[in-house]
């Protein structure tokens, strides 16, 4: 989800909470109905001044329009804030064609990163780097075999195996076999 889409969705939700129609909000905020429509649909992001006027009418702050801090009602009425359907997963792109990730949470605004990682056969790298400041990383092997190197110590994990470590430790994850491997990676705090 793009940030513009989130802002528009937030505006529309808050407007409906105040039982206002779009024309009323546009008039009170001193903007055109067309501009509000474009904002709510995610077609434009609008200027800071426009968003500030809308926030004032909606009795909220400009910063709140850019957060995913939602009320319980918002969270349970908008499926896209709760559920990631398997055909709707967002891909995380890397220059390495043998390494691809799919985001298993709706966004990276929370405290946890949950991704499906696919390593193609013979995905070997020289890079050994820390990822996140503090927190934890857990990797659970779904298919195949992966090799995790923490500093200079190698650990081989097979299907069903799981590892937990501090992501500040320089590390790398490889597939040294001739078959694809997949694993679930859970990291806190979010590293992307």
Defining traits:
three-stranded antiparallel β-sheet; 192 residues; alpha+beta; single chain
What does this structure look like?
This protein is an alpha+beta fold and 192 residues long. Helix content is 27%, strand content 27%. The chain has helices spanning 3-17, 22-29, 33-41, 48-57, 62-65, 72-77, and strands at 90-92, 99-103, 113-119, 136-143, 145-150, 153-158, 162-165, 171-174, 181-188. The strands form 2 sheets. The chain has a 6-stranded antiparallel sheet, with no helix packed on it. The radius of gyration is 21 Å and the shape is elongated. The relative contact order is 0.13.
> What's the number of helices?
6
- CA distance, first residue to last residue: 15 Å
Strand order of the largest sheet: 1-2-3-9-4-7
Give the SSE string: HHHHHHEEEEEEEEE
What is the general shape?
A: elongated
Estimated radius of gyration: 21 Å
Task: Give the topology, please.
Elements (H helix, E strand, L loop, with lengths): L2 H15 L4 H8 L3 H9 L6 H10 L4 H4 L6 H6 L12 E3 L6 E5 L9 E7 L16 E8 L1 E6 L2 E6 L3 E4 L5 E4 L6 E8 L4
Antiparallel strand pairs: 1-2, 2-3, 3-9, 4-7, 4-9, 5-6, 5-8
Helix pairs in contact: 1-3, 2-3, 2-4
Provide a compact summary of the structure.
Helix content is 27%, strand content 27%.
